[in-house]
Amino acid sequence: MAARSNWKGYLKLSLVSCPVQLFPATSSKDRVAFHLLNRETGNRLRRKLVDPETDEAVESDAQVKGYQVGKTEYVLVEEEEIDKVAIESSHTIDIEAFVPRAQIDETYLDTPYYLAPDGKMGEEAFAVIRDAMRDKNVVGIGRVVLYRRERPILLEPVGKGLVATTLRYAYEVRDDEDYFDGIKDVEVPEEMLDLATHIIGRKMADFDPKRFEDRYQNALLELIEAKREHRPANNPAPVSKPSNVVSLMDALRRSIANDQEAGAKAAETPAKPARKASAKPAAEKPAGAKPAAEKAAAEKPAKAASKPAGKTAARRAPAATGRMRRAS
Prior knowledge:
This protein is an alpha+beta fold. It has a domain at about 5-25 and about 85-170: Ku70, Chain: A, Domain 2 (Beta Barrel), CATH 2.40.290. The chain contains 7 helices and 12 strands. It has helices at about 80-85, 125-135, 175-180, 190-200, 215-230, 250-270, 290-300; strands at about 5-15, 15-25, 50, 55, 65-70, 75, 90-95, 95-100, 110-115, 140-145, 150-160, 160-165. The strands form 3 sheets. The protein has an 8-stranded mixed beta sheet. Strand 10 (about 140-145) and strand 11 (about 150-160) form a beta hairpin. Residues about 275-328 have low confidence and may be disordered.
């Protein structure tokens, strides 16, 4: 079931506009989360804000926001004052510019949303804006007010809709030169480079997010399931630590040999069906029952296959492209 939209308004390009709605593209509701309980009573606990000097709880009507300007000095700001400076939402995403996708530094990407027409009346105008961007191979840059804050937003055609990703401001992104300038220039021997590129070539694949299971999530679910069934948990095997590399050339050669050996074993061993962990105790299934994961995969094509090649664009743009930089 699709999530409910958390914003409705208009998408505008010059004099062309259409009603749209914004949906969250990600969800953490299936992630394992724990509550804090009283070990003696089993009751859930609630947190209270306490004044560290008086050690007394401070009720909400006695709380006030403060901006720290010194070690013990704060500028107090009332909620009414914050409301007065909040950007009033026009409920319109006005596309201000179009840029090549490769010019967008990936570190500026923040939160993704799905943008879709709100009703049939806006579908034609929405399609015009979407297809025009796709034909020109560009993405749109606009602004939107979400949760009282105005954010830059990137609009990218994906399938029949648009992926709208809020962007971080320049002051929110640290300059990579502070971290990379100290890395020394190294002249890599040709033979080492050939071996490394050979390993990369053997591991080339199409990106499929379903290949990456959340092993920590699965281990937590296994622990919960085992405790409900009053049995020992099947803890994951410890991960072996990498050995110290004495010779980089030997390590590259051993990597190729290990990959070839693993590939030969994989070809001989039939693949096992993936097991989906569940927080509920396992129940017996009818002999002819089809696993839910297989049924879902058969009914719904992989979502990643519908995304355009533009998603794999280079992370960094050349200096000549006018890449956004952090304000000094």
